[in-house]
Amino acid sequence: MNGAKSSTVTGTTATVKRGRFAPSPTGRLHLGSLYAAVGSYLDARLQGGEWWVRIENIDRAREVAGAADDILRTLEAYGLHWDGPVLYQHTRSDAYRAALETLAQQGLAYRCDCERRDYAAATVGGEIRYPGRCRTRDLNPSRPHAWRLRTDGSDPIAIHDRLQPPLTQDVAAEVGDFVLWRKDGFPAYQLAVVIDDAAQGMTDIVRGLDLYDNTPRQRLLQSLLALPTPTTLHLPLLMDVRDEKLAKSKAAVPIEAAEAPATLYQILTLLGLDPPPELTHAAPTVQLAWAVDQWRVERLPRAPSLRLR
Ligand code: GLU
Asked: Which domains are assigned to the chain?
């Protein structure tokens, strides 16, 4: 995998802008995930950048057979054509393992065999926070264990999102030593996402607001591993009529390729664009070509969530 491509423009070096859509293949795409896909696509394309797709299937137990192919077919039906090869996270274990070893060698990662019930009493704001019990335990490596990051000593991290209000998080106090590698043998999302965004040269991340409070953990890992920090833009979450997050809701019916024009039209509207009525039945590629010129961060809804009727 190459890092960000550089090109020389009139003597100055310009980095290619690159965004991505990184679905977990735990089911078919629904309106909420397509919303993030279209947002990241338009943002990359308006900047003359590339848009890549990464299938986040590190958790093989949660992967639904056929879901990744189905997601890719749906993206194509919606005119969301990607650049570069599709990266599958299940092929990337060596890269994640190497990053873990780098952190462990610096004394920043440690083995942990605690069960949740061992520390369930340690909560911050209602969230269970791991108190660092195994930091100094020097566990026998042959016993099943997770790996955690030492967060003590890290400074509070301020995130300046392109859309959301700034977020400052003291990862050590508010989250604690988070898991880098799970006891069940899978790398954790936080580690994998940071390694892949860097390896793929991602410069601009657009995704759902549910991941905003994960960003400080990812920033911390980027700084410990001396990786570049992409900008972020966290889109509002789509909610159903009962105010449930669409991803979790039973109403998150998969989107159908046959309904692409009407669904895409709805998504463009939810992105704060004002597509002309004649686009309602236009092919997805025609709608996207119109939308690329219209996309502006200032036009995006500021509300944290949007309720669908
Ligand atoms: N795979 C994650 C999800 O489907 C998205 C990860 C990301 O965009 O950073 O929720």
From this structure: 18-91+236-307 (3.40.50.620), 93-190 (3.40.50.620)
